[in-house]
């Protein structure tokens, strides 16, 4: 693939140089004493060649489109794992089909008319100022199509973004972004996330939770995101440093994470991680990836290096904004499980209050040990000095 890209770049570079030489050549016309020898006016043969080339180019567009769908169509994400996912995919499919149909028709007409009305000696172009009927048609059709897409899009967007917290059983999870990792915080038994600010970041309190807030005492922090299947989850996003973007590809959800403000969206997971691993499309993707990895491993082993571990599918939270040098590696594992398993996992986690208290106790014990060692050391030194002085006195008496 890399070799093909290099060849394409070299070809395009050659075309660019050729065009530059033609431009330079044209600038010399008129200044030359033999301007008639450099006549650049197209004749019928040139116009015919260009007309046929236009047809050839539209054929290339169609063939390349078909090839792209066949070659790379299988790399699509596949089965959506959220409640709103199918609606999102339908909106995307509708948009792509409309684009495909319009592109097919308009590209054909563009190149066909370029061929049909190509230059010909003695032909004079027909010109008219306007055609109200034609302008109405090509205006009203896009208006109707785009209005339908926009209304459908707004409907899908509302389903994703609008959450009736009074009527729906929801859980709150904060997603905290920083270069180049993610952390999450779960609301505890009170169902409310405590206040937070970067000014409170200290020690184990890496999320900057305000520990004076009563609602923060039972919050639970984690570096791995677990979600219960079938439960509405409202995500609150914060950023410590720069603009990030929380992207859940398999859940069809994405939101910018902006420093200094809280953004949010919600979705309901519909497939556990284990269920998604059994999805035929995912199984095929995993098999293809492991085939590639096995070939790479053979090369690594031949060089005396360690082989790659087999790939296993996991949901991921990715950063979809270029946020720095390690942006590509800013990801977090997402585990969707049954609600009972989720509650068991969450129950085994320490609350923020317990983690901060334990950290302070450990710091106090460490400080006390350091202080006691500093006290014992001088005492030991003074005892040794006294013993040395007594020994020296006995020597002097003798």
Structural overview:
This protein has helices spanning 2-28, 44-72, 85-116, 132-161, 273-277, 280-302, 339-347, 352-397, and strands at residues 170-178, 181-186, 220-222, 225-228, 232-239, 244-248, 253-257, 263-267, 315-319, 331-337. By secondary structure, the chain is an alpha+beta fold. Helix 2 runs antiparallel to helix 3 (85-116). The chain is elongated, with a radius of gyration of 35 Å.
Please specify the SSE layout and strand pairing.
Blueprint: H1 2-28, H2 44-72, H3 85-116, H4 132-161, E1 170-178, E2 181-186, E3 220-222, E4 225-228, E5 232-239, E6 244-248, E7 253-257, E8 263-267, H5 273-277, H6 280-302, E9 315-319, E10 331-337, H7 339-347, H8 352-397
Parallel strand pairs: 1-5, 4-10
Antiparallel strand pairs: 1-2, 2-3, 5-8, 6-7, 6-9, 9-10
Helix pairs in contact: 2-3, 3-4
